Task: inverse folding
């Protein structure tokens, strides 16, 4: 304002001639005065003494206390207009002169100006140094540690350099004290650790800048990080809880991932940033740190995963594992040396293996469950006239139930190989998991175990009681046979399609597995034949052993047990027919059904078969030839069966009739006893031939029974064939 | 020389009973009893001439009835016991008696077989084992290695121990025991253990095996459900106490350690029908013979549970220099059990098999049609065992 007024020439008033007025020296003094003013020093101070007019006169244009208003007032009051005009002109001229003087002065003293600015800066620096202790103190008090450290950093070198100068030395000492306090406070803050990792990192950064020993800080940094991470671990552990409800596994791994793994990542990142200068030793320290805590984390995760044993659904588990694994891949890059990613992959693999085992168990249990259902269905009392579920239906149920379980298991374990899952591209999941795990371990393993379970029914000690219902044996046999013919190759194709097997591990060929299934089916069916044969055998044996054949009466009927044998055989035929095809029979002679007792005595005389027996003395030789004929064909009584109804029935009937033969040979028969055997055998002949592959076999065995009975009879008078026929037709 | 070829001998009648002449240790001799309801029954004394591969026979009449079981005294070559059926008044009773054969037949007279039928001689009855109170006799067994004075017979559910006195002319019932239980219990077979000073007998009834102490006539062990079906026969391992073999209608042969009655040591399932007979070889107990109504005889090598599981161990005394290195060569691994041979010479059910008491490498089998077959252990195996 003042300058403007001074500069701005007011009309009507020129610059008053200064009382001293000497034009010559005025510019010089003004310049001086200006220069002094520039340096903020009053003219008096600079000149050292008052000069000229009263320095306090406000109207002195060159005075220090010049007041333009007062000056203008004075001019207007004291001067006439002309003088004012002159003053104005004079003032303008003076201003112009002053300006040019100033310019000249600046030009002339340019270098001086410049050097004076340098001094100024230096002074400012000095001032900074002198103020440093107080500033530091202030910063520390305010908690502006960063600022304080920056100040200290700026000053340190200079102070170091000039510490031989006492004044600087003093400053340095002060600063050191303050810095020590600062460091202490930083450490304090660092230790309190309440703040998150970023602030801590800042602390460390500052402390490092303060020149604290990096190694120690490193330790301390890690110790603090450990404290924080351990807290995370503890909270995770608490979630494991001795007693559920724990959060579900996905939530758990999420928490672990964001809490612990996230924290670990931060620590690692900060550490690497802060302590990069530490080189490999520092990195190793970090790796060891991460390894140790990581392993504890893994232990917790594994404990949690171990609680996930139940259930057939893997989706939640796989998602949890995915999160877990994915999360650890981030620090995996930073912490390659710690091998956390590898360890995580291992855990995932282990879980995958366990799941495979679990599913295998599940399938086994499902199979056993099916068997229990079948047993119950078989044991359920039959309502008269209303059939329960037929064997074929039960078989279909079992087959479809097992197949759907297999498919469900495949789908469940397939999740492990889904593309979006982070670990599915690991070598294990691309190779071994598919081939050795799923195909061999789960599917082949299950089929094998199924066969074993089925076979175990053949080895059951309860042969006598027949703890296993024969129908179950039959059903299992058919199931295994179906597996051999179709199901195994279907399942394995399905598996191979879903799990593109890429590795070189040898896998069980379909043919091997099929052969095993077929062998199982064969053993089961053979066992079925034995069990059913035994049932009928026992009836026949009891009927022979318990009867007094010497004092029996003349036969009038077929004994009830024979009817029972035929009934049971028919029932077995129906039962087997539900599951097995008919099979082939040898071509039958046209009169098969009409064959009667005459078969034994007359009609067989032609052909290569010798007559069976006649009740005369040379009977022994007849018998011998008969026996030779029989055993030249060598009937294997308990022989492997083929997979058809006729073969099964043939086996059962062979066993039964052979038992009858052996039992008859242990008894002694009276005449009527022999005749009863005749009647019984004829009855069996009438009804059993239709069940077997080669009816000749039934004839041979029954011939043999009658012949043996005749041999065991001191008075062998056979019954007339016609009478035998009549009795048998009467039923 | 076709040394391994079987030698076959045919009887005119059905037959189930076969025994080696136990007291005879030089000549190979078997006794066979026939079963005929119409003709006089016979005991054929079968002499096998090992060198010439010829069978010589002598026939003794056994007129009291058809023979179901036969056993020879371990002390006297001329003494034997039979179980036979006696039919009277529409009743069949199985009795037992001790007999003596004519002196000149004891060591086998080598008359021409042609005249034997005309010169058939009769057995001399020594004594009856009175079973009127006990029921049907299933079998008679002699005390092994004894003086031929003690026998045990099984009659229905009774086990009877007899003392033969006055040159076996009198049988005194020394002690007895009975099976009690529901149902009609009936012994099917029994054997006298050669171990424990011959104080143990084992019996079979239905599916159960039982051990008895002959001193107290009390049961010492019981193997319930030893077989799934009827047990037909059993035999003691002659060299290994506690071990016995059993066979039955479940087509199986089982080997037991009587100290553990819950599980058999081993089970064989090679036959396709009931196994009627099982016999350990007297010297080499790995050799086990079985006969079955599938009309086969099977010789098995049960070396892993034998007294020589590592093969033949040469006694120190016997070791000559040459044998030294041979014994070293022997593998000390337990050998594999296997079926040595299946003999198919029979065409009817085989009800009896037994080893010769004179030649440990020779055995006989008898089928119902009266066919007796003499076979030898394959030479290769014989040398393998011996060397």
Result:
């Amino acid at each position: 304002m003042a300058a403007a007024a001074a500069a701005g020439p007011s009309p009507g008033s020129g610059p008053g001639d200064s009382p001293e007025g000497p034009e010559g020296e005025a510019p010089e003094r003004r310049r001086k005065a200006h220069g002094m003013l520039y340096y903020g020093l009053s003219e008096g101070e600079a000149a050292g003494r008052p000069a000229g007019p009263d320095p306090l006169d406000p109207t002195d244009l060159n005075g220090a206390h010049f007041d333009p208003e007062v000056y203008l007032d004075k001019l207007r009051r004291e001067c006439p207009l002309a003088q004012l005009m002159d003053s104005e002109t004079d003032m303008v001229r003076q201003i112009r002169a002053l300006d040019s003087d100033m310019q000249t002065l600046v030009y002339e003293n340019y270098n001086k100006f410049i050097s004076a600015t340098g001094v100024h800066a230096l002074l400012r620096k000095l001032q900074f140094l002198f103020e440093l202790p107080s500033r530091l103190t202030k910063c520390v008090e305010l908690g502006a540690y960063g600022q304080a450290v920056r100040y200290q950093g700026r000053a340190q070198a200079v102070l170091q350099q000039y510490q031989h100068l006492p004044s600087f030395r003093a400053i340095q000492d002060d600063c050191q004290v303050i810095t020590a306090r600062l460091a202490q406070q930083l450490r304090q803050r660092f230790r309190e650790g309440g703040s998150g990792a970023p602030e801590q990192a800042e602390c460390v950064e500052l402390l490092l800048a303060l020149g604290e020993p990096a190694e120690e800080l490193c330790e301390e940094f890690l110790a603090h990080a450990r404290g924080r991470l351990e807290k995370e671990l503890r909270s995770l552990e608490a979630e494991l809880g001795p007693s559920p409800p724990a959060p579900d596994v996905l939530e758990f791994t999420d928490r672990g991932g964001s809490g612990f793994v996230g924290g670990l990542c931060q620590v690692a990142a900060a550490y690497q940033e802060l302590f990069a200068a530490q080189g490999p030793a520092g990195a190793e320290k970090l790796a060891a740190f991460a390894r140790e805590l990581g392993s504890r984390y893994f232990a917790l995760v594994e404990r949690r995963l171990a609680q996930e044993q139940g259930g057939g659904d893997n989706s939640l588990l796989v998602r949890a594992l995915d999160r877990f694994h994915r999360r650890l891949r981030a620090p995996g890059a930073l912490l390659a040396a710690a091998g956390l990613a590898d360890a995580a992959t291992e855990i995932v693999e282990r879980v995958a293996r366990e799941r495979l085992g679990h599913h295998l168990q599940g399938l086994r249990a499902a199979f056993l469950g099916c068997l229990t259902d079948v047993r119950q269905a078989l044991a359920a009392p039959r309502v008269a006239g209303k059939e329960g579920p037929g064997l074929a239906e039960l078989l279909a149920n079992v087959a479809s139930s097992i197949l759907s379980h297999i498919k469900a298991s495949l789908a469940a374990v397939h999740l492990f190989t889904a593309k979006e899952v982070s670990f599915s591209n690991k070598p294990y999941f691309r190779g071994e998991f598919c081939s050795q795990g799923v195909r061999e371990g789960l599917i082949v393993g299950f089929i094998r175990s199924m066969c074993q379970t089925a076979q175990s029914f053949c080895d059951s000690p309860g042969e006598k009681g027949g703890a296993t219902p024969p129908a179950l044996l039959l059903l299992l046999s058919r199931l295994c046979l179906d597996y051999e013919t179709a199901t195994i190759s279907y399942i394995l194709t399905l598996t191979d399609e879903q799990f593109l097997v890429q590795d070189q591990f040898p896998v069980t060929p379909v043919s091997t597995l099929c052969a095993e299934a077929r062998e199982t089916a064969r053993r089961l069916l053979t066992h079925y034949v034995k069990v059913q044969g035994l049932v009928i055998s026992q009836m026949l044996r009891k009927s022979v052993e318990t009867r007094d054949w010497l004092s029996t009466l003349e036969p009038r009927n077929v004994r009830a047990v024979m009817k029972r044998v035929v009934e049971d055989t028919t029932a077995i035929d129906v039962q087997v027919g539900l599951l097995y095809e008919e099979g082939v029979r040898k071509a039958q002679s046209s009169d098969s059904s009409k064959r009667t007792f005459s078969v034994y005595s007359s009609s067989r005389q032609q052909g290569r078969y010798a007559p069976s027996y006649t009740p005369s003395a040379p009977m022994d030789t007849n018998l011998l030839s008969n026996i030779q004929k029989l055993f030249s064909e060598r009937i294997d009584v308990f022989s492997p069966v083929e997979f058809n109804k006729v073969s099964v029935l043939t086996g059962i009937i062979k066993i039964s009739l052979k038992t009858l033969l052996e039992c008859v040979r242990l008894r002694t028969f009276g005449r009527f006893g022999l005749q009863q055997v005749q009647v019984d055998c004829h009855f069996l002949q009438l009804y059993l031939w239709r069940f077997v592959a080669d009816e000749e076999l039934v004839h041979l065995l029954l011939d043999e029974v009658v012949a043996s009975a005749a041999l065991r009879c001191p008075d062998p008078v056979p019954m007339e064939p016609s009478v035998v026929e009549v009795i048998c037709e009467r039923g | 020389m076709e040394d391994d070829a079987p030698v076959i001998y045919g009887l005119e009648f059905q037959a189930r009973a076969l025994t080696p002449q136990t007291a005879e240790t030089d000549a190979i001799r078997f006794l066979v009893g026939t079963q005929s309801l119409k003709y006089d029954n016979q005991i054929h004394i079968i002499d096998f001439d090992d060198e010439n591969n010829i069978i010589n026979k002598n026939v003794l009449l056994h007129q009291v009835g058809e023979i179901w079981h036969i056993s020879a005294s371990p002390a006297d070559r001329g003494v034997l016991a039979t179980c036979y059926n006696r039919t009277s008044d529409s009743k069949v009773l199985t009795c037992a008696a001790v007999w003596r054969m004519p002196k000149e037949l004891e060591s086998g007279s080598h008359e021409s077989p042609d005249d034997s039928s005309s010169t058939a001689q009769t057995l001399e009855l020594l004594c009856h084992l009175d079973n009127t109170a006990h029921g049907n006799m299933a079998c008679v067994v002699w005390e092994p290695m004894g003086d031929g004075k003690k026998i045990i017979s099984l009659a229905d559910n009774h086990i009877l121990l007899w003392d033969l006195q006055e040159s076996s002319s009198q049988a005194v019932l020394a002690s007895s025991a009975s099976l009690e239980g529901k149902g009609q219990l009936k012994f099917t077979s029994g054997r006298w253990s050669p171990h424990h000073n011959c104080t143990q007998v084992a019996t079979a009834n239905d599916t159960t095996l039982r051990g008895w102490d002959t001193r107290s006539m009390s049961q010492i062990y019981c193997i319930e459900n030893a077989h799934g079906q009827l047990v037909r026969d059993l035999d003691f391992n002659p060299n290994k106490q506690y071990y016995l073999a059993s066979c039955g209608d479940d087509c199986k042969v089982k080997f037991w350690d009587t100290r553990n009655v819950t599980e058999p040591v081993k089970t064989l399932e090679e036959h396709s029908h009931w196994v009627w007979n099982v016999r350990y070889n007297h010297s080499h107990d790995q050799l086990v013979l079985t006969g079955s109504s599938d009309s086969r005889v099977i010789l098995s090598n049960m070396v892993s549970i034998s007294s020589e599981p590592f093969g033949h161990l040469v006694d120190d005394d016997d070791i000559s220099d040459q044998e030294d290195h041979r014994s070293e060569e022997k593998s000390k691994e337990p050998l594999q059990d296997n079926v040595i041979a299946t003999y198919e010479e029979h065409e009817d059910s085989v009800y009896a098999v037994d080893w010769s008491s004179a030649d440990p490498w020779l055995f006989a089998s008898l089928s119902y049609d009266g066919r007796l077959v003499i076979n030898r252990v394959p030479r290769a195996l014989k040398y393998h065992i011996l060397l």
